[in-house]
């Protein structure tokens, strides 16, 4: 929900970046506002440094957080602008919070000095199958994104129209 609220607060200023335009440019609305939202998470590095996390680890963690919040923000902005509805954004955000980031630790060979954790060891044996399922999910996402965000699914004839796709 926060990416949409952040976009709602920052989109008006970006929409006036081209005064001769009669409608807001889609590029900055979809690409820049989520990037600003991602960059707004840089303060987490200070908290991690205060907690005693080494600077390199804190920096890498914040870079990862900026990356995935920006990517999700781009997706949420696309859904919101395409459908004109908050429903797909809220459902997608809930699903992402439920699933979390995928754990890819099983891809790395375990360090030889330490025994591998049991779950990682079991997953390591099936890494080809798991990667196949990940690839299938990414492929289906790419194929179904546009059809599943069809504005016709989110409004009736007499209802509100999508914001930018007419």
TrEMBL record:
Transmembrane spans: 26-46, 58-79, 85-109, 130-147
CAAX prenyl protease 2/Lysostaphin resistance protein A-like domain residues: 27-99
Keywords, sorted A to Z: Endoplasmic reticulum, Hydrolase, Membrane, Protease, Transmembrane, Transmembrane helix
Pfam families: Rce1-like
InterPro entries assigned: Rce1, Rce1/LyrA-like_dom
Primary localization: endoplasmic reticulum
E.C. numbers: 3.4.26.1
GO BP terms: CAAX-box protein processing
Gene Ontology CC terms, in alphabetical order: endoplasmic reticulum membrane
Signal peptide range: none
Subcellular location: Endoplasmic reticulum membrane
Annotated catalysed reactions: Hydrolyzes the peptide bond -P2-(S-farnesyl or geranylgeranyl)C-P1'-P2'-P3'-COOH where P1' and P2' are amino acids with aliphatic sidechains and P3' is any C-terminal residue
GO molecular function: metalloendopeptidase activity
Recorded family membership: Belongs to the peptidase U48 family.
Full protein name: intramembrane prenyl-peptidase Rce1
Organism: Nannochloropsis gaditana
